[in-house]
Amino acid sequence: MSKNIQELRELTDLEISDELKKAKEELFQVKFQLALKQLENTAKIGQLRHRIAQIQTVKQERLLSKGEVKSA
């Protein structure tokens, strides 16, 4: 989780997808730990959600710059 948004923008599309997958898996694990009362740092959930949002923002920026807009 050490990469900031500028470093994310320098990654390839494949690396961005990998980062997103890792972050989502880690969020799942942290939520699981929370449910089992094993999580000491509850702020980690917010940090991971923020990280996922950053990654998705970079992905969306790339789609928009290529002219590929997803319809909602």
What would your notes on this structure say?
The chain is mainly α and 72 residues long. The chain has one domain (5-64): Helix Hairpins (Orthogonal Bundle). 72% of the residues lie in helices and 0% in strands. It is built from three helices and no strands.
Name the descriptors.
mainly alpha; Helix Hairpins
Structural class: mainly alpha
Give helix and strand order, one letter per element, not per position.
HHH
The count of DSSP E runs of length 2 or more, i.e. the number of strands, is 0
What fraction strand?
under 5%
Main β-sheet description: none
**Top-tier CATH class:** Mainly Alpha
CATH topology: Helix Hairpins
End-to-end distance, in Å? 29 Å
- Indicate how many domains the architecture comprises: 1
Summarize the structure.
With 72 residues, the protein is mainly α. The protein has helices spanning 5-9, 13-35, 43-66.
Present the secondary structure layout.
Layout: H1 5-9, H2 13-35, H3 43-66
Helix pairs in contact: 2-3
